[in-house]
Amino acid sequence: MPEGDTVLQTARRLHTALAGQVLIRSDLRVPRFATADLTGRTVLDVTPRGKHLLTRIEGGLTLHSHLRMDGSWKVYAPGERWTGGPGHQIRAVLGNATRTAVGYRLPVLELLRTADETKVVGHLGPDLLGPDWDAGTALLNLLRDPARPLGEALLDQRNLAGIGNVYKSELCFLLQATPWLPVGDLPAETAARLPELAKKLLEANRDRPARVTTGSGRPGQRLYVYGRAPRPCLRCRTPIRVADQGDGSRERPTYWCPSCQHGPAPRPYAKQPPTIR
Q1: What's the count of helices (H) and strands (E) in the chain, helices before strands?
Q2: Keyword Lipoprotein: yes or no (predicted)?
């Protein structure tokens, strides 16, 4: 699942393959930009911003893409078979003399002026893996709506950019709070360390092929709660639980330990007191 660390790794691969090279192939397979021709232009850089990718191209252009749930960019050498998915899932092809980048299942793909990048990423909060990171601003953003459930606040990219469903569940576990606890009910000390804990998790995984939040690289023990229901909690052996969380339009499976984490939970699991030990 693409989150801030995955997007950063993707940006690195694309930058290595494309930056400084002249495009000899350009194919944007979305109706609005199907006639755009980027051949003959040099790719300047590929920059991640939260979960967004900004491929900057000579002439003041930026190709903006977002992976969301299952989008991906693959890089191939000349003559190498494209294996990222069937042809009808390809949304973009950018090629130079030595490498070809192919974007599969990209739900967001648009060509815009580089000067207008703020229109697509200007709403984002501080980027956990970016040069604009500011823990104080991120904390103020998170606490701006104290009644909002912690899990929803963490996923809101306007508060801080880069957290997805995996890190949401893992952060809530490490904070010993259920994702449904109002963010304003977090003890002050817990809330104060939240932004830097989030940054620490993403930075620890920015170079790893598989995410690890537990410190163990053993299969089945890399994550505390995400994807582990109904297996026993790695700390207390209580079965991990899963339930949907969201605003009704975008429900996401959310994992937690009913013993290690404290606060409200969705029915029929709402048995924990809304306080943190």
Answers
A1: 6, 10
A2: no
